[in-house]
Design brief:
A: MetI-like fold; 2 domains
Chain lengths: 311, 291
C-alpha cells in the first residue's frame, strides 16, 4: 500500500496497471463481495429490471410482449387517478420534506446549547415517534370518527361542532391529517445527523465570528453554523426527501385503501394497486420508474439549492 | 491572555438576546408538546378501564389506571389461531439474524472501501450512496420477481438476506471508518504481517464501536417494526407487528388492548435508543456528504 506502488508506471498501459492493482487487492474484492452481491441482487437489479419490464405488458402469467412506451403513454394520458396521485404525492412531499427538514434543523439548533443531560432527554422526546413502529396509529384514536375520539369529544363538549366529524373518511381532512401524522414521525436520521453536526463545530469559530462582527444568533447561524455543517445538511436532505416519498404505509393504515375519493392516493398506492393487487407488472414498473426519476430529480435539485448556503 | 479570552467569551454570550432565548423556548415547548402528547395519550389510553375508554367527554389522562388492558392483550394472544409466541419468535429471529449479518457484511465492505485502495471502490460507493436517494417501494415489485426466481417467497430468507446489505449501514460505517481509523495503525499492522481480515476484525472494528452500535440499532429497528410483507403468505411466518395489527381489526371492544400493544411495541426501540444515544450521535458526526 505504499505511495510508490500507486503511481502509474510508464512501462504499462492503464488497463494493465488496473489489472495488476486488482490482482494485488484481491482480498479487498473478497471483502466487498458478499455485500455487493446482495446489494446488486436486491437493489440494483430491481431498478434495472423495472426499467426493462416497464416497456412490456408483463402480467406474471403470460409471455410478455414488448410495447415500448405504451405504458407511459397510458399513464400520463389515460389514467386520471395517476395524475391525481402525482399531484397528491408532490403536495405531500413538498410539505413534509421541507417542513420536517427545517423542523429537524431548528430543534437540533435550539437544543444545542442545553446541558448534555437535558439535551439527551429532549432528543429522545423528539426522536421517539420516528422509531416507535406503529404508534402513529394513536392519531386514529385521537381523531376517531365517533364522539369518544378525543378531538371530536372536545369539540362537541365546547359546542364548536354539533355532529361528530368523520376525520379520516372526509376528503377535505384526510390529506392535512396525514401530513400532520407524517410530520410527527419525521424527526429521524436527519435530526440526529444535525445534532451531531452542531456538536462537531469548533467553539473557537464562534468566538472568532463575534470578534469579526457577528452581532446576533441569526447571523451566527447563517455565516458560521450552517456553512460548517454543510455535509450534514446534505446528508439530512437526502434522508428527508427519501422518507417524504415513503409515507404510503402511514396513509393506508390510517385512511384505508383506497382513501376516500382518492383524496390521499399517492404514487406509492398506485404502484401497489397495479403491482401487488392487479398484477399488471409492466404497468406498475412504469409507475415505479416515474417515481424513481422523481425522487432522484428531487435530490439533485435540493443538492443544487443547498450548495448556496452561507453565500 | 486569560483576560482577553474571557472578554471574547463575554462577547459570545452577548450574541444571545433574552428575547431570542424566550422565543426559542416557547417554540421548543410548542413543538415538544406536539411530539410528546400523543405518546402520553397512548400510554394513558392503555391504562384506562373500559368505562373511561368509552366516556363522554373523553379524558386525555387516565383517572383510575389499571393493567387490565395488558392482561386482556395476553389473553387475546393465547386464543389466536397461530400461537402468539410464534409471531414473537419470527420477529426476534429475523431481527437478530438480519442485524448480525448486516453488521458483519456491511462493516467488512465498509472497511475495504474506506481503507484499501482498490480500483472500482469509488463508483461502488457512489452507487450505494445514490441508492439512499430512493425509497424501497420503487423496487418492491421487481424484488418480488427476483424472490420468486430464487424460490424464497414465503421463507425467512426473503426477509433476512436483503437486510444483510443496507445502504445506510454501509454508508455510515464507511464514513465513520474514514475519519476514525488511523491509517498509520493499520499500516504498521500490515507491516507486521497481519492479514487484512485480521486487521479489520482485531484492529479496526474495536475503534469504531459507536458506528457498529448505530448500525445495529438501525437494522434492528427496521426489522423489528416490519409489518405484513408481500413475500410472506403463511400465517406461521408472519411478524409480531402484523399480529398486533390484527388486534385492532378485532373491533372497538379491543381499543384498550390495542393501545397496550402499541406501548409494548414502542418500548423496545425506545429503550435501545436510550442506552445507545451518545454512540449514535457520535457516529452521525461523520455522516456528512461532501459533494
Amino acid at each position: 500500500m505504499s505511495k510508490k506502488k500507486a503511481v502509474i508506471r510508464s512501462d504499462m498501459t492503464r488497463a494493465q496497471w488496473t489489472w495488476k492493482e486488482m490482482k494485488r487487492n484481491k482480498v479487498a474484492y473478497a471483502m466487498i463481495a458478499p455485500y455487493m452481491l446482495i446489494f446488486t441482487l436486491f437493489t440494483v437489479v430491481p431498478v434495472a429490471l423495472s426499467m426493462v419490464i416497464s416497456l412490456t405488458n408483463f402480467n406474471l402469467l403470460e409471455v410478455p410482449d414488448v410495447v415500448w412506451l405504451d405504458n407511459y403513454i397510458r399513464l400520463f394520458l389515460d389514467d386520471d387517478i395517476f395524475i391525481l396521485a402525482c399531484k397528491n404525492t408532490l403536495i405531500f412531499a413538498m410539505i413534509v420534506g421541507p417542513v420536517s427538514y427545517l423542523m429537524s434543523l431548528m430543534v437540533a439548533w435550539f437544543i444545542n446549547e442545553l446541558p448534555p443531560k437535558i439535551r439527551a432527554l429532549v432528543t429522545l422526546v423528539f426522536y421517539a415517534p420516528s422509531i416507535s413502529g406503529q404508534v402513529y396509529l394513536i392519531w386514529g384514536t385521537l381523531f376517531s370518527g365517533d364522539s369518544y375520539g378525543w378531538v371530536n369529544g372536545i369539540l362537541l363538549d365546547l359546542g364548536i361542532i354539533t355532529k361528530e366529524i368523520q376525520w379520516f373518511q372526509n376528503a377535505s381532512y384526510v390529506m392535512p391529517l396525514c401530513i400532520v401524522v407524517a410530520l410527527w414521525t419525521s424527526l429521524g436520521t436527519s435530526f440526529l445527523s444535525f445534532i451531531a453536526g452542531l456538536q462537531g463545530i469548533d467553539r473557537s469559530m464562534y468566538e472568532a465570528g463575534a470578534v469579526d462582527g457577528v452581532r446576533n444568533r441569526w447571523q451566527e447561524l447563517w455565516y458560521i453554523t450552517l456553512p460548517s455543517m454543510k455535509p450534514q445538511l446534505m446528508f439530512g436532505a437526502v434522508m428527508a426527501i427519501t422518507s417524504s416519498f415513503g409515507f404510503g404505509g402511514v396513509v393506508t393504515a390510517l385512511c384505508g385503501f383506497p382513501s376516500v375519493d382518492y383524496a390521499a392516493h399517492t404514487i406509492m398506492h398506485h404502484l401497489d394497486d397495479y403491482g401487488s393487487q392487479r398484477f399488471e407488472v409492466g404497468y406498475s414498473s412504469a409507475i415505479a420508474v416515474v417515481l424513481f426519476a422523481v425522487m432522484i430529480g428531487a435530490n439533485m435539485l435540493v443538492k443544487k439549492v443547498l450548495s448556496k448556503v452561507g453565500q | 491572555m486569560s483576560k482577553k479570552l474571557r472578554t471574547r467569551k463575554h462577547k459570545v454570550v452577548l450574541n444571545r438576546s433574552a428575547g431570542g432565548d424566550a422565543g426559542i423556548s416557547v417554540m421548543l415547548i410548542i413543538l415538544g408538546a406536539f411530539m410528546f402528547l400523543p405518546m402520553i395519550y397512548v400510554i394513558s389510553q392503555s391504562l384506562k378501564p373500559l368505562d373511561e375508554l368509552w366516556m363522554f367527554p373523553p379524558r386525555f389522562i387516565v383517572r383510575n389506571p389499571t393493567f387490565k388492558n395488558y392482561r386482556d392483550l395476553f389473553m387475546l394472544m393465547n386464543t389466536s389461531w397461530v400461537p402468539f409466541s410464534r409471531y414473537i419468535f419470527n420477529t426476534v429471529f429475523t431481527s437478530v439474524t438480519g442485524t448480525v449479518g448486516n453488521l458483519f457484511f456491511s462493516s467488512l465492505a465498509a472497511y475495504a472501501m474506506a481503507k484499501i485502495k482498490f480500483p472500482g471502490r469509488k463508483w461502488m460507493f457512489k452507487t450505494v450512496r445514490t441508492s439512499l436517494m430512493f425509497h424501497s417501494t420503487v423496487t418492491a415489485i421487481t424484488s418480488f420477481i427476483i424472490m420468486s426466481a430464487l424460490n424464497w417467497v414465503d421463507t425467512y430468507w426473503a426477509i433476512i438476506v436483503p437486510a444483510w446489505a443496507t445502504s445506510l449501514g454501509l454508508y455510515l460505517m464507511k464514513q465513520f471508518m474514514e475519519t476514525n481509523v488511523s491509517d498509520a495503525v493499520l499500516e504498521s499492522a500490515r507491516l507486521d504481517g497481519a492479514s487484512e481480515l485480521y486487521t479489520f476484525w482485531v484492529i479496526a472494528m474495536p475503534m469504531v464501536k459507536p458506528a457498529w452500535l448505530t448500525l445495529i440499532i438501525y437494522s434492528f429497528q427496521d426489522l423489528w417494526n416490519k409489518g405484513a410483507s408481500i413475500y410472506i403468505h403463511s400465517e406461521q411466518l408472519k411478524s409480531f407487528n402484523y399480529a398486533i395489527g390484527q388486534i385492532m381489526a378485532g373491533g372497538v371492544k379491543r381499543a384498550g388492548a390495542h393501545a397496550a400493544s402499541l406501548v409494548i411495541m414502542m418500548f423496545v426501540p425506545i429503550l435501545v435508543f436510550v442506552i445507545t444515544q451518545s454512540n449514535i450521535i457520535e457516529t452521525m458526526g461523520s455522516s456528512g456528504m461532501k459533494d
